[in-house]
Amino acid sequence: MTRIQANLVLLLAAAIWGGGFVAQSTAMEVMAPFWFVSVRFMVATFVILPFALAETSRATRPLTRPERASFTGVGIALLGGATVQQAGLLTTTVTNASFLTGLYVVLVPVISLALFRRAPHWIVWPAALTALGGIYLLSGGDLAALTGGDLLVMICALFWSMQIILAGHAVRATGRPLTLCAWQFAVTALGSAVIAAVTEPFHVEALRQAYLEILYAGTLASGLAFVLQVVGQRHTPAPQAAIFLSSEALFGALFGALLLGESLPVSGYAGCALLFAAVVAVELVPLWARRRTIAARLAEGTP
């Protein structure tokens, strides 16, 4: 898979996650948030498990203990991101949450540099800030007074950053994207079920009323989209992947307008333009730089 193909795969994952905002929004009308997270990832686990087992049967060696530990670490990061975000949404606004969650586009290159000493291409830094500005405008460009929920959502952005970084590292080290997905889904489903059992009542009727949202979130927004994420990250560095994945805010606004009748202010369209510019810059600037380098070497007669 080429870098361009991998980036298109990441964009598709972001588009599916954008549609997941609609499913999650409507499901919360009848279902408790932590139970929704648990059931969603339980469905995702069963959807991916047969493919993960087939991948395991074709593997030339079993996973080592450190590799299994790294898969569990990805699952814990996903669990933290999914549950802390839900807890934050109880005491903050959707506008604040959508902007603060998008902090991961800046956190990913910073954490990657700190943990792995991997400096991203220079275009990632201005593109990350551009994408963050786009998310801010897309969320309405008007943050209310910060609350305890805002702090939780900022912690959530840290968890999402770690999930993106650790998933990319684990899948490149093992070449087992489907196994990684099944593993992180199972960890998230089990962990959120424990939290839900302690904090929320469970109603079978809620499952019946929200079954369409559960199926979408479990099969597509979780099962398919996270597989696309880890497959794409085999060929795209985490800082660049974060830029492409951040376009989920753009797709969320699009699906909200199409399916829920929501409308964007002028600032929202400006935010869409900034996000699109960030994605295009991250894709084209390194490509142009490589072509210029090749052309210069050919002109000098350097092989």
UniProtKB/TrEMBL annotation:
Compartment(s) where it occurs, according to its Swiss-Prot or TrEMBL record: Cell membrane
TM helices/strands, residue ranges: 33-53, 74-91, 97-115, 122-139, 151-171, 178-198, 210-231, 243-260, 266-289
UniProt KW Transmembrane helix keyword: yes
GO CC annotations on file: plasma membrane
Pfam families in the record: EamA
Protein name: DMT family transporter
SUPFAM superfamilies for this protein: Multidrug resistance efflux transporter EmrE (SSF103481)
Domain EamA: 7-139, 149-281
Major localization class: membrane
Coiled coil spans: none
InterPro entries, sorted: Diverse_Substrate_Transporter, EamA_dom, EmrE-like
Topological relation to the membrane, as annotated: Multi-pass membrane protein
Keyword Membrane: yes
Keywords: Cell membrane, Membrane, Transmembrane, Transmembrane helix
